[in-house]
Design goal:
The chain is of the alpha+beta class. The chain has five helices and nine strands; from the N terminus they run αββαββββαββαβα.
Length: 216
Amino acid sequence: MGRLDDPPEERFTSGKPFSGVEAQVRDPATDEVAPAGASGLLHIRGFNLFQGYRNDPQKTAASFDAEGWFCTGDLASIDAAGNLTFRGRIKDMLKVGGENVGCLEVEAYLTTHPDIQLACVVGVPDPRYGEVPAAFVEVRRGADVTADEVVEYCRRGLAKYKVPRHVRFTADWPMSATKIQKFRLRDGLLAELGAVSSDAVPAARSATPDDPPLAV
């Protein structure tokens, strides 16, 4: 939770753990505590934790370490001042040429574009990088945006390896009861690209706002 005396930019994006609750960010690959500002797996410890999963000792053992830290499955970062920022879920983490890319970070940046109303990022196989980001975007009514413009916008504010390699426009989102079904977006794009394995991904075609919604 943010403090009243925190700067506005911190209060709106991050906060400190409640009294009695500890938070720690660890490197997903090594389980070592990550340096200040680096993204990793969020672990917590404190009075608010549950004792374990009912009738599931294996899952309990996999989620808690010997010191009582619980792995939340969330991606987060903690800066030098102790402010914690949520970055997404670990299953929404892409591995691009060995670099971790949080889908939530790319989605959040895309929606800062004045003509983009909604964005969703998934990973697709790539023969060189293993996996690359692909962005599905919904533009605002009356807006005229091209895929090249979306990519160029990302290049101005994101690291090169975080820039989507594929851009598709849609207003017809596959939904569960409450969330966009990312696996359907990804499966539809893989079918379009003819990508059945990581060594069969051709270059993306150019998309325009006039393209029909993605068939999924």
